[in-house]
Amino acid sequence: MSETAPSPLPNSPEFTVSELSSALKRTVEDAYGHVRVRGEISGFRGAHSSGHCYFALKDQTAKIEAVIWKGVHGRMRFRPQEGLEVIATGKLTTYPGSSKYQIVIEALEPAGVGALMALMEERKRKLTAEGLFDADRKKPLPWLPEVIGVVTSPTGAVIRDILHRLEDRFPRRVLVWPVRVQGEGSAEQIAAAIRGFNAFPERGRLPRPDLLIVARGGGSLEDLWSFNEEIVVRAAAESTIPLISAVGHETDVTLIDFAADRRAPTPTAAAEMAVPVRAELAVEVADLGQRSFACWHRSQEHRRSDLRSAVRALPSATELLAIPRQRFDGATAALPRALRGNTHAHFRHFAQTSTRLTLRVLRAQVDHAAHRLTVTGDRLALGAQSLVRRRRDRFAGLEVRLKASRLANVQAQRNVIARDRERAQRLTERAARALRTLIQRHDARIAHAGQLLTALSYRSVLARGFALVRDAGGAPLHAAAHVTEGTRLSIEFADGRVGAVADGSAAQPVASPAPASQAPPKPAPAKRAAKVDNQGDLF
Predict the structure, then answer these.
(1) Is the pTM of this model over 0.90?
(2) Mean per-residue pLDDT for 335-362?
C-alpha cells in the first residue's frame, strides 16, 4: 500500500494575535483618523476614579464604545449626560485587550436645538429647586446710578448702543469689563467679570458700580449658550450689585434672565432701564417748581386775607385803653392818702415796739446769743475732733491697704521678672543649641565639600598610578602630537615631579580594546624598547 502524500502548506502568511491586532488598529486609524459621530449617550455613570469617562454612543441599530480622557473632559463646555443626543468629534481606534473598536472623543456638543433645550430645561429645574430664581432675591434698581458696570464684548455693537443710549438719556460714568460672549472659556470670563465688579472696594481707585448690565447681541441658541452655564447663573444670583440681563433679542431666553434682578429685551432697553431721561426730568422739575411757587403764592394770599379780616374785627387803641386809663387816674388820686395812712401805721408800730425794748431785754438777748455761740463752738470743736478721728482711721486703713497692695505688686513684679528670666534662659539655651546645630551643619557641608574636592582633584588620579605631563610653560599636554623632538617636559607623579626631554620618536596610536564577543588575539613576541639614558620609564 502506497503512503499518502502530504498536503501542501497554504501560502497565506501566519500572524500572531498581537500582530493581527496591531494591523487592524493601523488600518482603522488610517481609514478613520478623524470622524464626527452622532448618537445617544448610553451607559454613562460619571467620570471614573482616574478621571476618564467610559460610555457608548448608540442609535436604533448599532452601538460604539467611547472614551474621553481626563484632560479633555476637564476642558469641555458640555459634559456627557445619560440619554443626551450628542455629536462627538474624535479619532477611531481599537482596543486590543477586548477585540473592540472605540472612538476617543476630543469634542462633544449637543445634537441640535432640541437637545440644548432639554439640557436647558433640566438645568433650569435644578437651579429653581435651589432657590436661585426666587422673586424675594430680586433687588430694586437704583433710580439714578452714579457708575454703571457693563460686562460685554468690547468690539461688538452692543457696547456702542448702550453708550449711545446713555448719552442720549442721562450721561453716566461707565466701566466696561471686556469678555468673550461665546466660544471656549467665555462663561468663565463672564462669571469672573460679575464677581470682579462685586469685589471692588467702596472707596477704591476705581469706583464700585451701582448697577451692572450683562449684555450680548442676538444669535442662535448655541451662540447664547454661555449665558446658560451654571457658573454664570450662580455669579449673577450671588451679585450684591443690582444686575440687568440684556442677552439676545426679545424672543431669546437664557437662564441668566431668571437669576438677574431685571431682564431687558435688548441691550438698548437695558440702558433705558438703567437711567431716566434727563430732559424729561428737567421738564418735570420745572413743572414741580412752578406748582410749588403757585401753591406758596396762594397760601400767602390766604394769610393776607385772614390778616385783613382780623384787623377789621379788632377794636381801636382808644377803646382798648379807656378803662385802664380810668383805673390809673383813680389810683393816682388815692395814692397820697394811702401814703399818709401807711406812714402813721408804721409810726404806731415802731412806738409800740420801742416801749417793749428795755436794757434788761437787750442784755437777756445778748446773753442768749452768747450762750448759743458757746454751745455752737463746743459742738464745732467736737465735730472737728470726730472728723479728724474718722479721717485718721480712714487714712490708717488706706495705709494698710496701700502696704498690702505694694507688697502684692512687688511680688507680682518679682514673679514677672522670674518668668522673664526663665524665658530668657530658655531662649539662650535654644539659641546655643541652634548655633551648635548651625555650626555642625556648616562643618558637615565643609567636610562634604572637602571630600568632593578631593574626589574631583586630579591628584587622586595621580595616586592611582597615572602621571600628568606639562610643557616648559607648565601647561598640561593632552596629545602626543603636541610634543616635538627636544621639547622639555615636566612629568608630575603623586609623590613629586620629574623633568624629561622628548626623543622625537613617532607617536603610536593606542589600540582600542577588543569586543567582548571576540577572543583577543595572541600577542606577538616583541622586543622591549631600550630606555633612553636621559629619560626614565613613565609607567
Answers:
(1) no
(2) 84
